[in-house]
Amino acid sequence: FIDRWWVRLLFLMVLVTLVYVIYKRRVRSIIDRNNLELAMQELELKNSKLESKALRGQMNPHFVFNVLNSIQKLILTEDKASANKLLNRFSKLIRSSLKYSRLEFIPIDQEVEFLTYYLNIETLRYPERFTFEISVKDLLVEEEIKLPPLVILPLCENAIKHAFKENGGRLYVTISKLDEYSLRIVVSDNGIGIENAKKIQDSESLGLEIVRNRLDLFKDQGYKAEMKVSSLNSELQTGTVIELRLPYK
Fold this sequence. Notes:
Elements: H1 5-76, H2 80-100, E1 106-107, H3 108-125, E2 130-136, E3 146-147, H4 152-163, E4 169-177, E5 182-189, H5 194-200, H6 206-220, E6 226-233, E7 238-247
Parallel strand pairs: 2-4
Antiparallel strand pairs: 1-3, 4-5, 5-7, 6-7
């Protein structure tokens, strides 16, 4: 019976069908597992973006509190002209902040404009405390390069609050292209220095903590991001240089 050709053909067809069914199930299992991994990666990426948005949102009340104190001080001293000027600049800054906190990347010229608003407000709050300069290199504005918003501001705020203990401070912000994927941002000052500031301040500022957390989220999303902190004068440990590596689009 087994030697008959149609029996052998039937056996061969059953065997082929069985192998095909096993193969299809294996392929389906691999596809399902890959789809699950992709879904998990998309969920993690979505969570990272939500966390990044939340961190950007934290900068608003953190900064608003400081400026409102300054406005109150000007009103109490009856310096109405300065208070009005500060309120006008403050309103422009808040509008920009609310807009940018919802975005992952913004054009460099908008980031520079936002920083200028902020630093001008700080010069009103602390007359003669410091001067500032923002430099954008490599024709980044013409190339319509976009960078993550509200990352540079906390570093400037930290310098103004902790580095400049006397008048005559200088703050420099430089933005340039590091490579085809990253920007190099340097925030430097001639203040008392990071090590001396640590002796006065017990804990790291909220702004720096937010920046570090955002850099970690950029890494989780597959971007190259890092921050290096050093002294401008290593011998005297005065002045601070903060170098950021940020992704751009």
